[in-house]
Design a protein that fits this description.
The chain is α/β, with parallel strands linked by helices and about 350 residues long. It has eleven helices and 14 strands. The protein has a single domain, classed as Aldolase class I (TIM Barrel). The chain is globular and about 55 Å long. It holds the Pfam family Oxidored_FMN.
């Protein structure tokens, strides 16, 4: 029987175990999108993971969602990421950058740009903007057909910058209500051109973004995260099994490193996607974003159902030594939710691990 502590070959990488640190927003970057020395400490502390996927990194200023999140759209940001990736590699780890374009989950008060999206339909939510606090989400500007191609290229450009910054690869964030999932959805995407309407139209942006990133840096260094049927940020998807079956079938010929699926739909739907996908399949058992911390039992459930790798998010916040804790059955520390996005080092790099 496959164990979470068995090694795994992911593209050109040899992973010492099958545990993945999932991407989590921490809001610890500088105001101009630079990771800091504490960022290097944070990820290096967790380098025993088979693979780390970074917090969401905006591939363009237009694509930024939250204040104090890092970017990969200029040379200064690339240089600021290098000490982070070097620290992870020095401690024997592997790290992918998650490229997260916010689409309509953005606000002009955050970055000075009006958000863009598949259609001019606002999400029903308030967004944190920094100094002005929570404000209603604005109606985004609908991208023209020509502009959609430009947003595809943004992912390719950021993928090149990620490799230049020392990342081992990139993960396209196609989950949790951000731009790629907005194109997949039936409520945020009301387009009548080639990027909307039918399932073939709604999956087109995701496929083109993945193809562009793969062409830029090599398919074996590109993954994509999905949340089939997920409703985060006011997303509605119709006929989830057919939609994601079509997406998997369209992505499969590209030879990507992996699909990273959140357990946001019925088990049999995810199992069918696993069977149809030809390379590594990562499952995050936690499903929707929320307060639940996933344990070893849920991870083993998905390994038994065919997943190759298991990702953990919240459990990694207070347990930088999560691999060893899961291996030995040690009690997991509780994290302090009040410190998730508050900035500073408290609740960030001060949780002791086996190296501290």
């Amino acid at each position: 029987m496959t164990s979470m502590f068995d090694g795994y070959r992911l593209g050109s990488l040899t992973l010492p175990n099958r545990i993945v640190m999932a991407p989590m927003t921490r809001a610890r970057a500088t105001s101009d999108g630079m990771p800091t020395p504490s960022t290097a400490i944070y990820y290096a502390q967790r380098a025993t993971a088979g693979l780390i996927v970074s917090e969401g990194v905006q591939p363009s200023l237009q694509g930024q969602s939250n204040p104090r999140t890092p970017g990969l759209h200029n040379d200064e940001q690339v240089a600021a990421w290098r000490p982070v990736t070097e620290a992870v590699h020095a401690d024997g780890g592997r790290i992918f950058a998650q490229l997260m374009h916010a689409g309509r989950v953005g606000h002009p008060e955050t970055v000075g740009h009006h958000p863009v999206a598949p259609s001019a339909i606002a999400l029903k939510a308030e967004l944190f903007t920094g100094s002005k606090g929570l404000l209603p989400a604005p109606v985004p500007r609908a991208l023209s057909t020509r502009e959609v191609g430009g947003e595809v290229r943004v992912f390719a450009d950021a993928a090149r910058r990620a490799i230049d910054a020392g990342f081992d690869g990139v993960e396209l964030h196609g989950a949790n209500g951000y731009l790629i999932q907005q194109f997949l959805s039936s409520n945020a995407n009301r387009r009548t051109d080639a990027y909307g309407g039918s399932i073939a139209g709604r999956i087109r942006f995701a496929v083109e973004a993945a193809e562009a990133a793969a062409d830029a840096i090599g398919a074996d260094r590109v993954g994509i995260r999905v949340s089939p049927g997920g409703t985060t940020w006011d997303i509605v998807e119709e006929d989830v099994p057919r939609l994601y079956s079509a997406l998997i079938d369209a992505l499969a010929p590209l030879g990507l490193a992996y699909v990273h699926a959140l357990a946001t739909t019925e088990d049999d739907v995810l199992i069918a996607l696993r069977k149809a996908w030809p390379t590594a399949f990562i499952v995050n058992p936690g499903g929707q974003i929320g307060p639940t911390r996933t344990d070893r039992t849920r991870g083993e459930h998905w390994l038994a159902n065919g997943a190759d790798l298991i990702s953990y998010g919240r459990a990694y916040l207070a347990n930088p030594d999560l691999v060893e804790r899961l291996r030995t059955g040690a009690v997991l520390r509780e994290d302090d939710q009040s410190t998730w996005y508050q900035g500073g080092d408290t609740g960030y790099i001060d949780y002791p691990g086996h190296r501290l």
